[in-house]
Task: structure prediction
Amino acid sequence: MKVIISGGGTGGHIYPAIAIANELKEIDPQTDILFVGAKGRMEMEKVPKAGYPIIGLWISGIQRRFTLDNLSFPFKVMASVWKARQIIRNFKPDVVIGVGGFASGPLLYAATQIKIPCLIQEQNSFAGLTNKWLGKSVQAICVAYPNMEKFFPATKIRVTGNPVRKDILAVNNKRTKAFEFFGFDPHKKTILAIGGSLGARSINESIAQHLPQILDQDIQLLWQTGKNSFVFPEAHQKYLQHANLKKSEFIYEMDLAYALADVVISRAGALAVSELCLAAKPAIFVPLPIAAEDHQTKNALALVEKNAGILVKDSEARNSLVDKALALLDNPEQCQTFSQNIQKFAKPNAARDIAEAVLSLVNKKSN
Result:
């Protein structure tokens, strides 16, 4: 079987795509997989590191404000569709998977034009413009949230969840190992604060300003700051050496980070939400307000409306985030409720279910 997987731009698109590819390979090691991404985007680095070939298209998103880049957008689309047709003609895929991101639009459009079976994997609770447009032409749509009929034809939808790393499963069995790894005391309460690989300015600034409030209560803080810098208060520099603080640009051992957390502070990207559902952790979400179609707020609200977490607006985080985190940490009954309710959204077999949906499309074509 020959498969093209197209899309990327962010980890929320790339890592589910790699998880799907790995699952297809696990089912049949002979499966031939080609990725198609956007030149200059992170998939061009991350996909080869995962062991798969990738071809880049000259495509980018259209800016919401007028820029000179927008003038080249129509030419990029036409060039990318032409290149996508060439890729399809050369590779001859049995099926094409779109995971969202700039490259998925031209590639899936080209594939649907010549009747190649196509599947979309929509990670968010609010579908993006490209996926909504493509949804009319593809054969199957795998989603992570219920009630997606407002975006896609109901007959094409399968609620599979988002594929995440398998090491996130059963993290509570790793608590002892996690405390040893990070050098924390298992008898103290612990907050995990994460804002993605680039970091979340509002989360970082809130924690930086209120660091004494956290550490003076003998609470442990595992803090992923991301790569983007932020101003750290001079008056709080002494706390950076505190035994209850572990501060890092990036945490690779996320299974262990989730394992020791009593409360998690996080953005509400699709991947982060899916991991928290599997880890079953009480969470406070601070959605990125400039995310496309404000989808992070909608992701968070899907959980908050089911009493499975707390939402703090980005604009209010600096004043109220730490207070809400400490209050939740001090309320074990609420923590247990959030943990039980968020776990109801978990889809541990997402990658396998999506892979089986892909195989089903290929089998229908061959029959």
Observations:
- Residues 68-91 form the longest helix (24 residues).
